Amino acid sequence: MEATEIQEKVVKILTPYVKDQDALATVSGETNILEDLKVNSARLVDVVLAFEDAFDIEIADEDVDEVNTVGDCVRLIGAKV
Amino acid sequence: MATALQPSDRRALLTQLWISRALSPLWIPLFTGIMLFVMRWKLVGADRVREEYARLRRESDAPVLVCANHLTMFDSFAISWALGDMGTYLRHFGWLPWNTPEEVNFASTWWKRALVYLLKCVPVKRGSDRAEVAKTLEKVAELLRRGESVLIFPEGGRSRSGRVDTEAATYGVGRLVSQVPGCRVFCVYLRGRDQETWADTPARGDAFDVYSVSLEPKSDHKGLRGSVEISKQVVGCLADMEKRHFDDRQ
Question: Hey, what CATH class is A3-78 in?
Fold first, then answer.
């Protein structure tokens, strides 16, 4: 699966959790999920579980520690699909 | 990749434990006195909770993760007091649980940092960088692996609804239980009779009803999903105790 395709799906999954919807217009690999998109940190786990379902992968506890940006999500998922 | 603690981090935790223990004959009576005589707080049902917690601590050296509901900034004081009295902690300092206070509330100035250091605390910065959160969780896991008791609030913060928020279950509790073999979970529900909703400080003269349940949370899932499921079981246990509390008082 191409990185751009993964990123599109990642952004789609993130969208319902994003508090700053305007930030979605300029989203890139460097966009920080908590700081730029204002996703609640407690909900980040729900986002990652949604990645598991959408991409049919299993994500370890420790993998979540590496997730700060949209690009981190794409790399994490890309390594598992 | 797991965030491994450096040897210096482990030494720092042991040093903190040593200093806290050395000064405990001063600060344990002081804080017990403040709760008893200044705040005039009372505990209702603590005998049963203390008996159960003491049994848990006596029966093995395995770690105990105390999971509690969270309504005020002083819950950790009241919960520690509900788990054991002053004499118990002076005799068995290891039974006094480590706490995980929010850094913004309790470690924002040098004197607060000194205080939380003394009071067996590992401050948590809510919503911080994932690696930083992971390092804090690893410190807590390290303490548990050493057989310590740690008090944690699975809701991740004070419940804004005033009731146990089952939707707010963070995965940290499940992650700790999964990562630390033999870790036992002791759920505690504590609520002041004047405590309608969340607040900074419980009312002076308030009486706290306290209940406990020993829990063995399990999940067939691995990884993050398993940790989330375990966390939800723990928060569900707290919600059940809350329901019984309000049912009994009606």
Answer: mainly alpha
Q: At what angle do helices A3-14 and A70-78 cross, to 10 degrees?
A: 120
* Count of domains forming chain B: 1
- The CATH number given to whatever domain includes residue B79 is 3.40.1130
What are the respective helix, strand and coil percentages of chain A, to the nearest 5?
60, 0, 35
Note the pLDDT tens digit of each residue in B226-240.
999 999 999 999 999
HSE at residue B163, side-chain half, CA atoms within 13 A, is 11
Q: Is B191 helix (H, G, I), strand (E, B) or coil?
A: strand
Q: How far is B6 from chain A (nearest CA, A)?
A: 17
- For residue A27, give both structure tokens: 């989203």
Q: Which domain holds residue B60?
A: 7-249
Residues of chain A where predicted confidence (pLDDT) is lower than 50? none
**Residue B33 resides in a domain:** yes
Q: Which residues pair with A33 in a beta bridge?
A: none
- Output the six-digit token pair for B249: 């008082």
Q: What pLDDT, on the 0 to 100 scale, is given for residue A2?
A: 87
Question: Is the model's pLDDT at B1 over the cut of 60?
Answer: no
Best probe of the B interface among A45, A56, A58, A77, by most B CBs < 10 A, is A45
A25 reaches B (C-beta below 8 A) = no
Instruction: Examine the predicted complex and report whether its ipTM is higher than 0.85.
Output: no
Check residue B63 and give its pLDDT.
97
Interface touch A64/B130, C-beta < 8 Å? yes
Using one digit for the tens of pLDDT, what is the confidence trace for B12-51? 999 999 999 999 999 999 999 999 999 999 999 999 999 9
- In this prediction the pTM is 0.88
CA atoms within 13 A of residue A68's CA, in its CB half-sphere? 12
Which stretches of B60-183 are assigned E, i.e. beta strand?
A: 64-68, 149-152
Where in chain A are the domains? 3-78
